[in-house]
Design a protein that fits this description.
The protein has 283 residues and is α/β, with parallel strands linked by helices. The chain is built from eleven helices and 14 strands.
């Protein structure tokens, strides 16, 4: 009996000590919304720590295909190079880290970002509305328009509207052919840009439509070709860097780096080296 009384007294004393040492009493419960808010804040803080982790590790993991010239590809010495490779390296340098490239096929790029195989992607990714629902995007680092290419002596076509009643040579299933038809042109089916150009140069086609990058590459390889750009689309297809949602610090740092590289001419210089034209400006 004495043992039982002693045990009860001891338990009561421990309970009293516990109550005295607590900052929260039964009459002051922690609000559920406070707990939820604190949890959300902690999650957000953890998500935006990616920049700190990257800078602590000294490495920015960059997803690329590595088979997409002139954006990213292996040169004759099997060294990874290209427009986006150099831009990514310049951005990483602005962040005070080194760019480390993770090569994977296109179908696995977005999935690789989602599961954390890399921090960012530099691979001509267009920020579509569907992608924006899942990822945040930086400001664009390239703007590529479709251009109307004609013979150097052609003085009849100066706009897309001037294609009405004219012939254009394009691969029949391409968006370029659809654009030509939209403006009233008759499309002559070919199987390559080179074939399109041959028809234009021979006078069998009035024009061809393609990406300004493809045209620039062709002219770099054929500088004496009697061709010119007669018109271009107003709206450009842009490329930007996708990052996982919630990485506000990383997104801001990337945008700051791209802005500085644009303003000091670095982006333009890299673009001219790989494309022969500046694709880094909105206008």
């Amino acid at each position: 009996m004495k043992k039982r009384v002693l045990a009860l007294l001891t338990a009561a004393a421990m309970l009293a000590l516990t109550a005295c040492g607590s900052n929260t009493t039964a009459s002051e419960p922690v609000a559920e919304d406070t707990l939820v808010s604190d949890t959300a804040a902690a999650a957000t803080e953890a998500a935006t720590d990616d920049l700190a982790r990257i800078q602590e590790d000294g490495v920015l993991l960059v997803g690329v295909e590595g088979t997409y010239p002139p954006y990213n590809y292996h040169d004759e010495n099997d060294v990874l190079t290209g427009y986006e490779v150099e831009v990514a390296q310049a951005v990483a340098e602005k962040l005070g880290v080194t760019a480390q490239f993770v090569e994977t096929d296109w179908d696995s790029l977005i999935a690789g970002l989602e599961v954390g195989r890399f921090d960012v992607i530099f691979n001509d990714v267009t920020p579509t509305n569907e992608r924006k629902e899942k990822y945040d995007f930086t400001d664009p680092y390239s703007y590529v328009r479709d251009v109307v290419v004609v013979a150097g002596s052609n003085d009849e076509i100066h706009s897309l509207e001037d294609l009405k009643g004219k012939t254009t040579s394009n691969t029949i299933s391409s968006t370029f052919a659809q654009l030509a038809e939209q403006y009233g042109s008759e499309v002559i089916a070919v199987d390559s840009f080179e074939a399109s150009v041959e028809l234009v140069l021979s006078g069998r086609s009035d024009a061809t439509i393609n990406s300004q990058v493809v045209y620039a590459e062709y002219m770099a390889a054929h500088p004496d070709a009697d061709l010119k750009i007669a018109a271009q689309t107003e709206e450009a297809q842009v490329s930007a860097v996708p990052v996982r949602k919630g990485q506000a610090n990383l997104l801001d740092a990337l945008n700051t780096a791209l802005k500085e590289l644009r303003e000091d001419g670095t982006l333009s210089e890299i673009s001219l080296r790989y494309f022969g034209t500046d694709i880094t400006q909105a206008e």
